[in-house]
Design brief:
single chain, alpha+beta, 2 domains, three-stranded antiparallel beta sheet, 3 helices
Length: 131
């Protein structure tokens, strides 16, 4: 069993591996991108010239970077929602404060009106009735 190695190819490669035991030309085509290949293929001079070997730490870093990017995207979306919610809360608090002021003003007007009516009522009681 041969060891597998990860390599990164920037473009598709067709690698000539020589001839097999029957004298037939042996070649392999590797697509662009991250590939897992046998160590024998990764060590071929042409592959080495056109590929970058990926170490275990580079693979882990890539996975961590992808996870970070995903979490950052989700965080940014939640931040936008949070900002919108904060704006809505501030708007509702202002509306509530304005409504409280209006209610307070209306209550003051009712008290004044009640006092005015009470004063008018008291004056009418004090005046003698015309005959």
């Amino acid at each position: 069993m041969t060891k597998s190695v990860q390599i990164l190819l920037t473009k598709e490669l067709t690698v000539n591996l020589g001839k097999d035991k029957d004298g037939q030309q042996k070649s392999v085509t590797l697509p662009a991108g991250l590939q897992e290949v046998d160590a024998e293929i990764a060590e071929h001079w042409f592959v080495k010239a056109h590929a970058q070997e990926i170490t275990a730490s580079a693979t882990a870093n890539k996975e961590l970077q992808e996870a970070f990017d995903d979490l950052k995207e989700k965080y940014d979306a939640l931040q936008i929602q949070s900002n919108a919610a904060s704006e809505e809360i501030a708007k509702l608090q202002k509306e509530l404060k304005d409504r409280d002021i209006k209610i307070s003003d209306l209550e003051a007007q009712l008290v004044k009106q009640a006092q005015t009516q009470s004063a008018v009522s008291d004056k009418s009681k004090d005046q003698p009735k015309a005959k």
